[in-house]
User: Fold PilZ domain-containing protein from Curvibacter cyanobacteriorum.
Amino acid sequence: MSSTSTPRPSVVQLAIKEKAALYAAYIPLFSEGGMFIPTTRDYRLGDDVYVLLSLPEDPQRYPIAGRVAWVTPPKAAGNRTQGVGIQFPRDEKSRLLKIKIEEILGSHLGSERPTQTI
Assistant:
């Protein structure tokens, strides 16, 4: 067995139960959309992460083969939650998921309320 094989992407399940939590986790800054995932695992920018995302009032789980594009370290300034921002891939499924999330959030998107990232 060779030890040079790339590690398989980790799998994370993220179940978001209400709109406020979706607003706090969603990252509209990423052109393809993205999601903040609270985690104490040590990720680096560019790591592949496979996310199974559940949205509020939606029984379906959405698989996302994302990439770490944001890292909030432990004990971050402003009492921010430790975790990573996963950027959605540039594909049709992600485009449709981004549209769905933005429809759920609706007028919340323009809100001044703080989120997990910015």
